[in-house]
Design a protein that fits this description.
single chain, 488 residues, alpha/beta, 2 domains, 5-stranded mixed β-sheet, two-stranded antiparallel sheet, globular, disordered N terminus
């Protein structure tokens, strides 16, 4: 593809704006963490990643094969590398934070590679920097931001390849996309987008072969691991349960229980183009100009790359039987890119009214995103601290050496207390009956969650058995949780 020429480079302005985007992103993330006493661990998944990263390092140090794990090896391998260098949880959190800042820089550079003016590219970087979900995901020990980093790097160097046709860029794009895939399976949704982009660009087969050979070791290593792993990979419940009908549904029953959401999947996963925690509605109209400007260029590979990145992951997510706000991060770079293209097109009109209106919408929209982003992340951190307060309270109520059954707080209890709690999800009447009789046992649960999310599923069945067969004596409440003593 011999494309529309990229705007003449302006190194000094690019450097200033790139530094500004990174400084805003870094300062914002550090400010929400300041005084928060939040180590990046929350829920169950983040603890599972941290624990497995430690076990992975131990197994590799002893020359053993990696133990089984639910998710691909990319992010645990990154954690293991951090731990091997002497870092701990704080260092792992810092690496994730810096990768989040790097995401914003890559999105700025991607907009420039698409031909946007520096100020328009700055809009793309700031959209990614100020979004509440991006801020939240950048301060936790999770795979979302590292996977997004690899995807943004791949998109950037792929775009450079489309302009320059040097095989090294395509090889790097393939390696980076493989890195995204083995960090989060969701990024498999980008493979067809990259593929049709290269087909439209009439890529040389020799270049494609070299690129695939470079990426192959990463994919083969993950494939070999997945084939010997008892946990699902491509047969994941979200894939097996995928249906276009799910886009219009808001109630689901899946392996994580029963869920009744406030809106349909179609509306939920479209939030990156209208919800302030991703993109201010004030900025959203600029995207329409971006799509129009992109189509007018008649550069099919770039059109397929930008629009495919937005649409294909959205179509997949809308059909899954689940809603999770962090999943939609995959399309944020495409949204930011289209917004930058729209602002760039408006700046090119030289119509003062249009330019002033567009800049005003963008400035006020970014301000809205800043306020929403800080509030969203602060609320999230407070919620995680509340869970840790529950654990600290429970530790004062439960005698040392007692057996504890829990749901949702199992992994944090193992990290922050001396107890080794048993996960209710894994319990059956048979395992509960086989437990040692006469020993102290306690149950820590969110009763609303048990009754609504898990009704007639293993956690609720286990609680019912303990209540009916052993008897439960309530000790007290803390937050949303209730602590019981299980009668001998």
């Amino acid at each position: 593809m011999r494309s529309h020429p990229v705007e003449v480079p302006r190194p000094r302005l690019d450097l200033i704006l790139l530094a500004l985007v990174c400084a805003v992103a870094l300062a914002l993330r550090l400010s929400v963490l300041s005084g928060a006493d939040f180590d990046g661990l929350y829920g169950q998944d983040a603890y599972a990643y941290a624990d497995f990263g430690e076990r992975l390092l131990t197994s590799l140090a002893h020359g053993q094969a990696p133990p089984p794990f639910y998710w691909p090896l990319g992010y645990p391998a990154l954690l293991a590398a951090v731990f091997a260098l002497g870092g701990g949880i704080a260092a792992a959190q810092a690496v994730g934070l810096l990768l989040g800042v790097a995401d914003n820089a890559l999105i700025y550079l991607l907009a420039r590679a698409f031909g946007c003016r520096p100020w328009a590219a700055a809009l793309a970087g700031l959209i990614a920097a100020l979004g509440g979900q991006a801020i939240q995901s950048g301060i936790v020990l999770m795979s979302d931001v590292p996977a997004l980093f690899w995807a943004c790097l791949s998109a950037l160097v792929l775009t450079i390849y489309l302009h320059q046709r040097r095989v090294g860029w395509l090889a790097l794009a393939a390696v980076a996309l493989a890195g995204a895939v083995v960090t989060r399976w969701l990024y498999l949704a980008l493979l067809p987008v990259w593929a049709v982009t290269l087909i439209a660009a009439q890529v040389r087969l020799r270049h494609l072969g070299i690129a695939l050979l470079c990426a192959l070791p990463i994919l083969l290593a993950q494939t070999a691991y997945s084939l010997n792993n008892p946990y699902p990979a491509l047969d994941h419940p979200w894939v097996v349960g995928w249906s276009p009908a799910n886009a219009l549904r808001s109630t689901f029953d899946n392996t994580d229980g029963h869920f009744e959401y406030a809106t349909s999947n179609a509306a939920f996963y479209a939030q990156p183009v209208y919800a302030p925690v991703y993109l201010s509605p004030l900025v959203a109209p600029v995207i329409a100009f971006g799509v129009y400007a992109l189509m007018r260029r008649r550069q099919l590979p770039l059109i397929l790359l930008a629009l495919g990145w937005l649409l294909l992951p959205y179509i997949f997510l809308a059909g899954t039987p689940y809603q999770n706000s962090r999943f939609a991060l995959i399309v944020v770079p495409a949204v930011a890119l289209l917004a930058a293209l729209g602002l760039d097109a408006l700046l090119a009109t030289r119509r003062i009214v249009l330019i002033v209106a567009a800049l005003a919408l963008c400035v006020f929209g970014l301000g809205q995103m800043l306020g929403e982003g800080v509030a969203y992340t602060t609320t999230f951190i407070n919620r995680q601290r509340a869970d840790k307060d529950v654990i600290a309270w429970a530790e004062t109520q439960i005698p040392p050496g007692a057996q504890v059954y829990a749901l949702g707080l199992t992994l944090p209890m193992r990290r922050y207390t001396t107890f080794t709690p048993l996960e209710l999800y894994d319990q059956t009447p048979e395992t509960l009956a086989a437990a040692r009789q006469g020993a102290d046992a306690y149950l820590l649960i969110n009763e609303w969650q048990i009754e609504h999310q898990w009704r007639d599923l293993s956690p609720e069945i286990a609680v019912r058995w303990l209540r009916d067969e052993r008897g439960l004596a309530q000790i007290g409440h803390f937050g949303y949780y209730t602590l019981y003593r299980v009668r001998p």
